[in-house]
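Sorry to interrupt, but I need a hand with the structure work. Could you write out one complete protein record for me, on any chain you like? Just paste the record in under my message, thanks.

. . .
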Amino acid sequence: MGMWVDEEAGRDWQGWWTVFYWGWWIAWSPFVGLFIARVSKGRTLREFVVSLLIVPPLVTMFLLAMFGGNAVSIELQGAGGIIEAVNESPTLALYATLEGMDVGIWGTAFAATLSYQTTLNCPIGADVRQAVINSTQVPSYP
């Protein structure tokens, strides 16, 4: 963010995105905490640390490096088009990257399905939906 240069005057994205991000985490933190506590029940401290604090950041770093590196490579040495896709709609960046990686329609369909399925089956989302529907406690799983 230190290198951000806004070309248009009057846009204050740099000032408001952190407030939105903080608000999102404050709103979701009780549900995330309940989910982590429920998933971690009966596990040792070592299992907890490895499964929640070490593995997810490593996988995230790998995926960001892989897709980000490929996007930069495609933009600098390949056909390009990723910057135009991002300017049109930021959500198109992944699909423009996949298109540049030549994964074909099946790779793009797999990425879209995985993203959609992950969102739908998220236990945190299920807890929130159940709590809102019942207006009671978050459900417990056996």
